[in-house]
Amino acid sequence: MRILFLGDVVGRSGRDAIVAQLPALRTRLNADLVVLNGENASHGFGLAPDMARAFLVAGADVVTLGNHAWDRKELIPYLETEPRVIRPLNFPPGTPGRGHYEVVLADGRRALVVQAMGRLFMDALDDPFRGAQAVLAPYRMGTGGVSAIVVDFHAEASSEKLSFAHSFDGRVSLVVGTHTHTPSGDHHILVGGTAYMTDAGMCGDYDSVIGMQKGAAALRFWRKVPGEKLSPADGEATICGCFVETDDATGLARSIVPIRIGGRLAQALG
Ligand SMILES: [Fe+2]
Ligand SMILES: [Fe+2]
After folding, report:
1. Which helix (H) or strand (E) is 193 found in, with range?
2. Tens of pLDDT, residues 50-88
3. Which parts of the chain sit beneath pLDDT 50?
4. Entry pTM
5. Which one of the ligands is nearest to 240 CA?
6. 11-29 and 49-58 are packed helices; what angle lies between their axes, rounded to 10 degrees?
7. Which residues are known catalytic residues?
8. Which residues are annotated as a binding site for Fe cation?
């Protein structure tokens, strides 16, 4: 299976890039499955339902969220009607939405997309390790099962991301981090066959502080006075993520390459 994963879409810059470029990118890569993280699409905070719809129309099969899942309240009823938008699985029982979604491709192949959220330097959610273990328990990859399993691990700390990935090495096709908005250079295939990248990076303007206008963001460190309003930077976005090819017979990865298209970052075109 050919899998395109794109990191946190930030503000109008990121949204416009995705809506304008994802259809052609999906075609050029001949991607079977496209997953993107939409938690920062609405002015940097949350995901409005119309933006989720736009991403799905542009070619995303699943949209993931994160710690900003609830910043736009109108997403809560939308999650009940749109299972292709998922939030981290380790929110407490009773939380709206779901933490995984099973995609059925046009050719009948199935893929599972899962999101979990780390706890180091993050909100104290339920255990993402045991939570993911429980969600994955009924699923097997390869012939007779799902062709691929993609896990978006939304977390701050690289140590937690690596610990999670090694814990599920061989059980899933890809563990890719989101949330730091900075693409890591450590994309590789773990010894058990799971593709890994600590962070996919953001789809947004990199002339910024993690997607937000740099002046106001820097002032928060210079002056410890609350109230500096953060707005997304509005220059050209770099579309960031990774492209993974897996073996349908085993679900394991054959290759992982970075994607960085447009904007200020050195380009990597898959
Ligand atoms: Fe984010
Ligand atoms: Fe986040």
Report:
1. none
2. 999 999 999 999 999 999 999 999 999 999 999 999 999
3. none
4. 0.98
5. 1
6. 20
7. 68
8. 8, 39-40, 67, 154, 179, 181
